[in-house]
Amino acid sequence: MGRIEVRFSGFGGQGIILAGFISGKAATLYDRRNATLTQSYGPESRGGACSAELVISDKPILYPHLLCSNILVAMSQPAYERYREELAPDGLLIVDADLVDPGQVPPGVRLYAIPATRLAEELGRSVVANIVMLGFFTAVTGIISEEAMHQAILSSVPPGTEDLNRRAFERGLNYGKGARTPSTPSSIHRSDRLRHPTTEEEIAEKL
After folding, report:
1. 67, 76, 125, 131: which is deepest, by most CB within 10 A?
2. What is the tens place of the pLDDT at every residue in 91-100?
């Protein structure tokens, strides 16, 4: 595998940095690849975007920052709007279907959507939406093995939450395995989105 650049993005409180950390841990400790992780914190408390920048490669990584994202994971609208222009023309866009309206996606970009926050709520804790997203990410990208991601999650979450996080990962993974083809913007149900919180403040109240 050559150099793969991934950006996880959202806002403070969604576990974006943890998602990047777990993915990097999975790639290095369990899949035995090279990886670097850098973090970007905006004014999250005022609704700004934050991101985790992950580079994965079979070769030594000489430059740890993103040059042009191959994959963008967006879990909030402001994050998507901030980082979408940095996605490669043939990149992969993954969004939380209830929280991000991707609008018109460039022709070469593949779009995958999952209601990660809603699925986490169905498990009883919206705070594991990032783990649901990691399951989906694992299934649709194939850049990290299922076993590696599973082990990295269980070794990174707080003691006593392993079962909840395992179920969150499996929920996202199975959802991703069912997404055999990319989504289209029109297939993301806006009516569903309207029944769920759409601002950082509303979501923060549910975490």
Report:
1. 131
2. 999 999 999 9
